[in-house]
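Final report, section 2: Outcomes. Of the targets proposed, Radical SAM family heme chaperone HemW is the one most frequently requested by collaborating groups, and we therefore present its record in full.
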Amino acid sequence: MTNNTNTSEINVTSAPEAVYIHIPFCTNKCFYCDFNSYVLKDQPVMDYLRALDLEMEQTVAITPPGVIKTIFVGGGTPTVLKPDEMAFFLASVRKHFPNWSDDIEFSMEANPGTTDLDKMKVMKDGGVNRVSFGVQAFQNKLLGEIGRIHNTDDVYRSLENAHKTGLHNLSIDLMFGLPNQTVAMLDETITRALELDLPHYSIYSLKVEENTLFHALFNKNKLPLPNEDDELAMYKLLMDRMREAGYKQYEISNFAKPGKESQHNITYWKNEDYYGFGAGAHGYVGRKRHINIKGVNPYNEAASKGLPRLDQFEVPREEAMEDFMMVGLRMLDGMESERFRKQFGVPVEEIFAAPLKKMMDLGLIERREDLEGYRLSEKGILFGNDVFGEFIGYLTIEA
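The predicted structure is given below as tokens.
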């Protein structure tokens, strides 16, 4: 293969339309979690929110925003903020990003049991119009075994509070492949989830990450995970159940009613620009990626002196191409050839001829129906990581 490609390309937007904000506080640390999060007790929450305000102020002075289409507040658990803290935070967001599209999607992650009516009213008044609840399972015993502190009653109560507040664009996260979880248990979880008739569901397989309790147990051979056949059966089951219930699987792990797909996550999967604010947050603007300082106090201190960066770098063209393919193929509609050509000034087939042919010969990807791109086949959905692995490193290793 060769890298002697046309170097002309259309630059990515210089006015991002998507915002990610990280609230790193949690009531406790779940056994599988490797996110940048810290137990709330004794944390300088207001100092952190003021530091966030400073980072947003400094950033938009350097890179002014476009009309904002999506805002996503993740964590941690953003809803551990008290109502007055939440009001301060949301006012700060609106101050620095005043121009919102008429159909903005403003999402906030939440844990069941951390969303009383007063807090949800503050959220709605501050512009939040979509809430994603970390439910994970509908068996209380299983929830306890993975370190969750909510129970199923908390789930129903939190969803009821959201609806009472006028927040109806709701999603829940579920997990499969958990220790001691059976196919039958997942089937029961999906049944109870579908009874809620929500617009959106995210259903993820467990990944045992380093620096987690589960990783320590795994290394001691004390983590009773389902076998590969059962885990594959779980994934097939959830795809079948969601399809039968009328939900479109629009991405490897995400299912939605028509028009209720997560627009913010689609920004990532289309490899588009987004701001990233908060401790440990990542941002991607003008093919430049940054990672913020992780610790709460170090972040607060750094933000008082300038942008709180741990690292920032320009993403090489080859790496950006690989990223485009990997994230684009996560969406079941697939990647769009024209968008690739617009970003990089060259046809995708000229860059990735070999892996495209290999994956098509294996029946793992196929041409889109409009022939303007590629997507995972039905078989390829089950082996997505194998497909993505063909593209990641292909240019940067061969170069």
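The longest strand covers residues 100-110.
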